[in-house]
Every structure is written in C-alpha cells, then in structure tokens.
Amino acid sequence: MTAPSPAAPDTPHRSGFACFVGRPNAGKSTLTNALVGTKVAITSNRPQTTRHTVRGIVHRPDAQLVLVDTPGLHKPRTLLGERLNDVVRTTWAEVDVIGFCLPADQKLGPGDKFIAKELASIKRTPKVAIVTKTDLVDPRTLAEQLIAVDRLGQELGIEWAQIVPVSAVGDTQLSLLADLLVPLLPEGPLLYPEGDLTDEPEQIMVAELIREAALEGVRDELPHSIAVVVEEMLPREGRPADRPLLDIHANIFIERSSQKGIVIGPKGRRLKDVGTTSRRHIEALLGTPVFLDLHVKIAKDWQRDPKQLRRLGF
Length: 314
Ligand SMILES: Nc1nc2c(ncn2[C@@H]2O[C@H](COP(=O)(O)OP(=O)(O)OP(=O)(O)O)[C@@H](O)[C@H]2O)c(=O)[nH]1
Ligand SMILES: [Mg+2]
Known about the structure:
The protein is an alpha/beta fold. Helices cover 34% and strands 21% of the residues.
C-alpha cells in the first residue's frame, strides 16, 4: 500500500472494525493481507480456505481500521460448514462496517444473493460493496458488474454506502477503499498497540501456514479434509544464544486413510515439500530458525463429528 497521508489537524481519530464477507474464494483474505501490508490470513484458490475470523490491523495517522476477515459464507454440507457460517453471522453483528466482496470475474449468482438477502436484514450497519479481482476483467465487464451490484442493492433494499472496484493483486484502489471505510468508523482511540498487525496467536498462525502449504496442489474433497494442529513450540535446549532453534511439532489431520498417501506423496516427497515451504514462511514470521516436525494423522470424518471438531479448535 502507499504511505498514509498525514491527518488534518482537526479531524478526529477514528477506530473500529470492518468485516469482509462474501462467498468462498471471493478474495477476502487476499484483500485483508493487501490492506494490512503483510500476510495475516492464508489464501488459496480452493474455496473455504479461511476457517476462523482473522483480524488484520491497518494503522493510519487519522484512524485504526481493524479488518475482520471471515470464512466464505456458503450452503453448509457438514457440521464444520455450519460452525463457519455461525462465525460469520456473529461477526457481522459486531462490526461497524460490512464490506461485501463480489469477484468481478464471475456473474452475480445465487450464492451472492443469498448473502445479500441476509445483509439486507441488518439495517443499522453501513455496507460497502467491494468488487474484487478487477485485474481479471476488461473495463466493460467491470462496468456491467458494478451496475449489477447496484441493481442487487435496489432489488433487496440495501443502500450501499459505496460501491468500490479493487484489485488486491494489482494494488488498484486499495488506499481508496481504506479512505472510504475510515469515515464509517466511530470516533475513538487506538484499539491495538501501534505496530501490531494482527492479534492472532503465533501457534495458530504457524498451523495456518502449514495448512496453506498442504492445500497447494490438492484437489476435490481433500482441501476440506485437512486440519493442522501445532502440538508444541519450544526453543531447543543447549543452543548458543546467537544460534537459537525453535522446535515445532505439528500434526496434519485428514479424514480417511485413503487420503494419507496423497498428503505424504511418493516416498514422502509431498510432505517434505509442505515442510520446506511452510518452514520458510514460519521462519519469516517468527524471525528465528525452525526445526519443523510434521506428522500426518487420521481424525475420522472430523468435519461432521462434534467431539473431533472441538479437539481441532472449532
Ligand atoms: N487475479 C486476482 N486474483 C485474486 C485477487 N484476490 C484474490 N485472488 C485469488 O483468488 C483466490 C481466492 O482468494 P482468497 O483471498 O483466499 O479468497 P477468500 O474469499 O478469502 O476465500 P475463503 O477463505 O475460501 O472464503 C486466490 O487464488 C487468490 O490468489 C485479485 O485481486 N486478483
Ligand atoms: Mg479467506
């Protein structure tokens, strides 16, 4: 993002929460990361990547804008799906602004209308329609999409506070989006210490980075079946102060024994790649060398099993 412009001396400081909602794969997490300027939420080209709310903090001289990235809202097929949808609905009841993300490269569909209808019933919270991924379409398609979004609002009685086209990948109109969200926040002091970019616990971020790497290149139902739990993170004993090493033990859970081979790969090659990729990201996040010990375990049908869901943190 471009550097924030200094606040005018007489503008009051604002602070508050804006959540991004939309169907799976709409680009919510990528947009959150782009606005925060660092990776706080994992992303993938598989739907239903995000599984809990992730807060990313945008610091500006005139405001602190806390972005709440939520799981994609969808028709649930499992207990996990229902839990995720509950998380989304609880979140939008608590925020100051709702940013409804609609990808520019896909015509508005039943999934978008389903969400819009629910948003229409939340009267008091301002709603900004965000048309995402504009780099993927030509100007004419974009114009048609903006008109369609406007019409959708009229149809359902939603008065969009703004309709903004953005591209997180192309860094197009991102600072404009922040400029439009900030005036919709209440006046208030800092909510988080200066410099904090997220309030995600390190252990969760590490598990997410491993899951992101494990999602790479897997297809069909498998992405949904993968869950990651960090069991332990401890500095290795007896290391010299200038050469620390962090031992991380994590389990990758899948639902069926037939999935194990795919995750591990021939001669363990896939699992090794997952380890190498995620270790690089974890080291960048924590700023320390890491020894990553990964195991693949079966948690039978965990997406549908309340007990297993609890164990996995849902
Ligand atoms: N070209 C382009 N691709 C984008 C843009 N934003 C997101 N994507 C891609 O769209 C896919 C989905 O992005 P995510 O940010 O994970 O989507 P999400 O809405 O968070 O998805 P869920 O967490 O599953 O609900 C990824 O492959 C991103 O790289 C964009 O501005 N331009
Ligand atoms: Mg996401």
